[in-house]
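re: ur msg from earlier - yeah i can do the LZUJQKHR complex, just paste it... oh wait u already did. ok heres what im feeding in:
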Amino acid sequence: MSKLRVAVIGAHGRIGSEAVRAVEAADDLDLVAALGRGDRLDALTEAGVQVAVDLTHPDAVMGNLEFAVGHGIHAVIGTTGWTPERLATLEGWLAASPGTGALVAPNFSIGAVLTMQFAQQAARWFESVEVIELHHDNKADAPSGTATRTAQLIAAAREQAGRPPQHDPTTHGLEGARGAAVDGVPVHSVRLRGLLAHQEVLFGGTGETLTIRHDSLHHSSFMPGILLAVRTVPTVPGLTFGLEHFLTGTDGLRGA
Ligand SMILES: NC(=O)C1=CN([C@@H]2O[C@H](COP(=O)(O)OP(=O)(O)OC[C@H]3O[C@@H](n4cnc5c(N)ncnc54)[C@H](OP(=O)(O)O)[C@@H]3O)[C@@H](O)[C@H]2O)C=CC1
Ligand SMILES: O=C(O)C1=N[C@H](C(=O)O)C[C@H](O)C1
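and the outut:
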């Protein structure tokens, strides 16, 4: 069977360089392009790329995707900074390129995906909830894509359960002290040298709290999810948001 022809865009970055190694090590995948800043996107078509993995920057990702999707190249996107408007634009490009698939994944690690699902499950039962995300000190976006998605899922679950908006009695204090409200859920962003990617979801009820914590300790934590996404996205046309939609069995979640 012929190997899937894969490109990594952002190939010299923290996660991109790890993705290059993971794709190279996979028997069924062929890394045919590894693009960094300033490289021409034409290299994707010249190399006959079938799936492009974007791990760049919120300022770069839309241009990369317009080119890739416009040329019928499936896309796996880990780059953050997604807004409803950006997703709608990507959906428009996909609609004009029938058969092309794109997965936008706020987080490729299984633990982070489960954290979001557990948080969604817990949300209906607790009065208070706050999200704390902690990342390395070079991260461009805040809150993280994962924390934003987690808060959105929590807010939707609370609304579905008929929970009223959270009570916040704060009337005095410094701007920002209560974090950023994502759909009404406070999200606090810590940036600290030495960290990689971590998140705590804190729930509070009568006389009890529940904390769900996830830690990505190394960029290898994202690789089984990226490889699963690369292998799956050509079979799922249109836009998919969240790796959970590709997690149909544990057998797909392997390294090389
Ligand atoms: N979904 C997930 O599971 C994960 C997502 N991420 C996300 O991935 C993105 C990258 O993170 P990280 O690796 O830490 O960041 P880095 O800054 O380490 O890497 C980004 C790389 O992309 C390069 N780049 C910038 N613009 C372009 C462009 N137009 N074309 C090609 N390359 C470009 C940068 O080059 P230069 O150095 O010259 O700027 C850099 O080498 C972030 O948005 C981050 O949030 C990260 C980890 C997991
Ligand atoms: O920038 C990072 O490092 C990460 N970005 C993603 C996010 O914003 O959620 C995923 C993970 O947290 C690592």
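cool cool. The pocket of NDP (ligand 1) is lined by residues 9-10, 12-16, 35-37, 55-57, 60, 78-80, 105-108, 222 (CB under 6 Å). ping me if u need the other ligands too
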